[in-house]
Amino acid sequence: MKAFVLFLFCTLCAAGPSHAADKIRVSSFSTILTEIAMQVGGGRVEVTGHVKPGIDPHEFEPKPADLKIVSMAQLILLSAKHMEGYVGKLEESTGTKAAVVEVGNGFASLEMKDEENPARKVEDPHWWHSISSVQKAVRIVRDELIKVSPADKAAFTANAAAYVAKLDALLRWAKVEVAKLPRDKRVLVTSHDAFQYFAKEHGFTIYAIEGVSSEDQPSSKKVAGIISLIKTQKVKAIFAETIENPKVLTEITRETGAVLGGELYADGLGEGDAATYEGMYRHNVSIIVDALK
Ligand SMILES: [Zn+2]
Fold first, then answer.
1. Mean pLDDT, consecutive 10-residue segments, the chain of 293 residues?
2. Scanning 14, 69, 189, 233, which has the fewest C-beta atoms within 10 Å of its C-beta?
3. Which domains does the chain have, with CATH numbers?
4. What residues flank ion ligand 1 with Cβ within 5 A?
């Protein structure tokens, strides 16, 4: 015990106040990237998550208080793939000289139909539902942190490797869980089209009632199409999401006899067991597998 106390004391000495003052200031506009920056940066970063858990990132707009913090940040992290329409404004109004990193643009996109113009395809912004994309994001954040503070390269590299390994374990767990569902049961009917990346990683077919943005309202023709599909494919459950009003889903369950399978975290981290990426992902997988098996 005495040895432990001594060790702890010396660790605190080494971390001392002179280091605390020059922490790397990171501004993040994605709950997922906030966690990644904290995990990879460890004690060397001071991360401000501008988009808080439970907030709809499709609707978020930075306020003057956010811009003030961004103007002092040394690294600015964005989800990208068209999630943050305000990125230009952010750069102009803060006059930042820091790296503005559109993390999601660093790896491949899936495409989705543009709800306003169905002839057009747009990039699907919900990349964090693919664990392999999250691992790529971890490496991008690691490299950006190293650019800001090359002296911390060894620590950032070790932290990133540990986090990537945790994600590997999470993906292995998810594969075992999803394997409990026969292929023909892997059908996801959700309230907005956020789970394409998840579907691709785990072999699901997706039917979304709404389009990319959670404020879109589905047409009655689209709802009728989903109802007929649920009946013919004998889909047992459909899924609401935590930010969404599940009114249309309730109507569909009445028409089809499918149950509401529970709320999925579509647009980022939440509270309680979904306050971490791993917790959020486990929540989604467990809800989906339990409801469909
Ligand atoms: Zn979304």
1. 45 46 93 98 98 93 97 98 94 95 96 79 95 98 98 98 98 98 93 90 89 62 88 91 70 91 91 95 97 93
2. 14
3. 15-172 (3.40.50.1980), 179-292 (3.40.50.1980)
4. 194, 267
